Each structure stands twice: as C-alpha cells, then as structure tokens.
Amino acid sequence: MYYLRGGTRIPVKLPVQIEWKTRTGRSRQAQGATASMSGNGVLLSVPIRLRQQTHVTITLTLPVELTRAPLQILCEGRVAARGHTPGRVGMAAIIDDYQFRPAQRPV
Questions:
Q1: 19 contacts: CB under 8 Å, gap ≥ 6
Q2: Cα torsion angle, 54, 78, 17, 46, sign
Q3: Is there a domain that residue 61 lies in?
Q4: Are 60 and 50 a contacting pair, CB within 8 Å?
Q5: 28 in a domain, yes or no?
Q6: What CATH number has the domain bearing residue 24?
Q7: Structural domain contains residue 107
Q8: Is residue 60 within 8 Å of 72, Cβ to Cβ?
Q9: Which tops the pLDDT comparison, 103 or 25?
Q10: 79 vs 20, 21, 52, 67, 75, CA distance in Å?
Q11: Total domain count for the chain?
C-alpha cells in the first residue's frame, strides 16, 4: 500500500505521546518526538515498532513561546510506514482528525 504526500513537510521537533491498543485490546503508550509534519501526516522518532494501519492517538505539546498559552494537538490517525535509524524507529502516521486543547498541567 502506497501513500502520496498531501502537503509540504515542515521539519519540526516537538515532544509527543503516542497511545495505541495491542491486538488483545490492552492500552499502551510511548514517548517520542516529531521529525517533520504536514497538513495530513507526521513523521515520528519513537522507541516502538507498530504495524501499518494500527490506530494511534498522538498528543503533540506545542511550545508556550509559540502559542502564549499551554496548548496541545490531539491527533487521531494510523501508522502508514515504518523505518529504522540506530537506536530509534521512524514511524509515519496519517492524521485522520485532530483537535486543539489546553495542555494538561503536571500534577
């Protein structure tokens, strides 16, 4: 299965949290970072390998210097491709839907 890019990729490094369910339905999560983003997709550097088409929820935390208030983007999507670099796994995800929300403050 091949995916064509729908927009220009912007190189940006932001912290992300990725959530998904295993085949048995168990919720899992991992921390990573974006490598680049476009209007309909994101390339991530993460410590996990997920199968193509796995549904993922990606939470991006935007820098306060840019937004003036703590803000996150909650993205619903699916894994489109995987790659590997020493020590990290690259993962491309298609973003099907997203919403902005106030960032959760640490407890």
A1: 27, 28, 29, 56, 57, 58, 59
A2: positive
A3: yes
A4: no
A5: yes
A6: 2.40.10.220
A7: no
A8: yes
A9: 25
A10: 10, 13, 5, 28, 12
A11: 1
Backbone phi and psi for residue 64, each to the nearest 5 degrees, phi listed first: -60, -30
- Asked if residue 5 is part of any domain, the answer here is no
End-to-end CA distance of the chain: 43
Which pLDDT score, from 0 to 100, does residue 9 have? 85
The domain of 37 spans: 10-102
Residues 87-107 have a mean pLDDT of 82
Query: Per the confidence metrics, is the pTM higher than 0.85?
Result: no
Residue 7: pLDDT above 80?
Answer: no
Q: What does the pLDDT look like over 40-94, one tens digit per residue?
A: 999 999 988 899 999 999 999 998 888 888 899 999 999 998 876 666 678 999 9
